[in-house]
Amino acid sequence: MDRKQSLDELKQKIKCPPGVAVVSFTSFTITFHHNRRRLRETVTLKVTQANALYCGKQRERALDDMEKGLMTKERYLKFFPSGKFAHLFGGVKTSKLLIEDVVTEWLRASVDRYENSTFVDYAYAVNNVILPYFGKFTAQELSRQHVIDWAKTDKIKDLTNKRINNMLYPLRNALDMALEERKVDDNILSGWTPTRSASRRKKKSTTELALRAHKNEKLDKSIDPFTFDELDKLINASEAYGPLYQFVAFSGLRPEEYSALAWEDINFITETINVYKARVHRILPKFLHDKYDIRNITLDPFKGPKTEAGIRQVKLLPMAKEALQAQRAATFFDPPVDMGPFGMKKPVFKMSKNKNMVTPDGLRKAWQNSLKRAGVRYRKLNMLRHTFASIMLTCGEDDKWIATQMGHEDWGLIRTTYARYMSAMTENAGNNVIARFTDWRNKDVSENRYATNLPQS
Length: 457
Fold this sequence. Notes:
By secondary structure, this protein is mainly alpha-helical.
């Protein structure tokens, strides 16, 4: 009698969701309807409020799969391991399964699989690219031809194959996950990406390229380094950010690397810079919470470099060292800031107005103003890094050493990307450019303390 009374008290204490009931101290029943038939399954779990809520969620998920025609015998047994009615459900059913459901389920399951910044990039691809174009196709309808047609649209056709492949990554992996769960019969993207001919517009003829070259037009806009004269004008045009421009042009650091650079990372005695962290300024998109109900994610702006090769020791060339010495008065004596997993550090570069750490986005307006004041043709801020590579190659430095300085995994990238700047190689890597600038500060720079008076190329 006492045991029955205590079970009754437990039933009154536990608030069960609809369709869930307590039947003993160690089990619940879950009741639902399928094809006008009432089904009731027993789930063995210790009776607690948390387990009652869990059973309610399992019931909702099972009903959702039944409504979409996805329920199979194997999947039913995952919901209800001792299921008495598993035989009512047959093999794979994909006719009602939308790509929207497949990709959304993958996105929710991938929160803990990637770095948060990488996950946010995939979330943007899902929300802005995949779902708007492919979301309403069913798994059976989607074909490679649909993907090829998408690759020919105006927004996509001029992108590189690598970029297209990155944008399709969530869809490819979502179909893989659905295939493993027997929700789909095939992954149309397995081992396949739209070909260059399907995604790129017609290649310009050599005649067109020759005419552009005759008019002194830039042929390759992706790599457009500054000349020595332009760099000199640019550094002189900004008192606040001149040291930053000069440092990047003669160190080759990535934007996320110099944004996270701290004074503690620099050794002026050995003339080296330890690069081991990056700062990625990303805003957590609101749609993750509102649209996909993803809440357990935060964005730490500080992380490791882009690749393993990015963890490196960079040689501090005299021109970069001079820029840091000019920057010293502005930030060296400021208090340290929290750099996440890397502890308290004193950042080298800060915004001139609010004294926050620099970001490429925050520098955009100042960069545009500097270019206007200098009378220099517009290029993106990251072109300073490309300028470093072109200067080193022009001065005859070894391409392997340049790749190490810049944090590239493949030194062949230097040869292929900057081939037109290649010069005779030298054994003493890093010394040629130093020799060329030995008279760097011997000239009159009274008009501006950041003037570089670089030699003309």
